[in-house]
Amino acid sequence: MKKLLALPAFSDNYLWLLHNGQHALVVDPGDAQPVLAALQAHGVQLQTILVTHHHPDHIGGVDELRQATGAAVYGPARERIPEPLTRLAQGHTVHALGLEFSVIDVPGHTAGHIAYYCADANTDEQGSPLLFCGDTLFSAGCGRLFEGTPAQMLASLDALAALPGHTRVCCTHEYTLSNLKFARAVEPGNAALFDYQARCQALRAADLPTLPSTLAQELQINPFLRSRQADVIAAAVAHNPSGPRDEAGIFASLREWKNNYR
């Protein structure tokens, strides 16, 4: 069985390391040092680096890791990522650790953002799929729209939401508790939010990650995956009465609300 590790970096990033006891892959290594330390601690060799988008906290360690380990780098076709790398887009696949990762285009946070999906990663007894989604989908939230449009992000989240419910959602920031605070403002009557918040608070009190989540969980508690639910629509309209009422407009109102929520 393969081992999945969330390596903390910076103030709230996770660098995902997957290994089989001999070889490893890492996702979005913004800092090389936590990765190098984990490789040494587990006695594994880095073979593959997967990049979801171009922001510095996701690519800052790529060059150092490539030089130190010789790992092959894969990343989005339409973003500025340090060369050399294999550039990927929707429909491409990556083979690493004996696994197949499908590439999904998920523009919104950045224009060329991609995600990686593995249908059977053999990381738990349930054979749960793995989703490395970068800054597109967070637990109880989604990424800010730095380069894409609300319609693009809504379509990207729809594509991820269509994956199997037991998919493990490996996003790259520990934003869960602050996202849940906003989600409760949007849906104060959603009992699933209170239960999930209690679990996540206990994890953080023990200095443990709240991640990975699952898509089934997110469909219950994430307002950005629930933007077509009547209660969420009503909350978005109440917050922004003059905003557009189409699906992308409701999503845009939610995202703008979250941007300014404290």
Distance from N terminus to C terminus (CA atoms, Å) equals 42 Å
Which strands sit side by side, in order, in the main sheet? Answer: 1-2-3-4-5-6
Under the CATH scheme, the architecture is 4-Layer Sandwich
Strand pairing plus helix content: what structural class?
alpha/beta
Could you spell the SSE succession in H and E letters?
Answer: EEEHEHHEEEEEEEEHEHHEHHH
How is the biggest beta sheet arranged? 6 strands, mixed
Return the average pLDDT rounded to an integer.
Answer: 97
CATH topology: Metallo-beta-lactamase, Chain A
Q: Whole-number radius of gyration?
A: 18 Å
- Spans with pLDDT under 50 lasting ≥5 residues? none
The number of distinct structural domains comes to: 1
Shape: globular
Number of helical stretches of at least 4 residues? 9
Content of β-strand? 15-25%
CATH class: Alpha Beta
Binned, the helix content reads 25-40%
CATH superfamily: Ribonuclease Z/Hydroxyacylglutathione hydrolase-like
Give the number of DSSP strands: 14
Overall description:
It is a single chain. By secondary structure, this protein is an alpha/beta fold. It has 9 helices and 14 strands. It has helices at residues 32-42, 56-59, 62-69, 150-161, 176-186, 191-205, 215-221, 230-239, 247-259; strands at 3-9, 13-19, 23-27, 45-50, 72-76, 86-88, 93-96, 99-105, 114-118, 130-134, 137-138, 141-142, 168-171, 213-214. The strands form 3 sheets. Strands 1-2-3-4-5-6 form a 6-stranded mixed beta sheet, covered by helices on one side. The chain has a 6-stranded mixed beta sheet with strand order 7-8-9-10-13-14. The chain is globular and about 55 Å long. The model has no long low-confidence stretch (mean pLDDT 97).
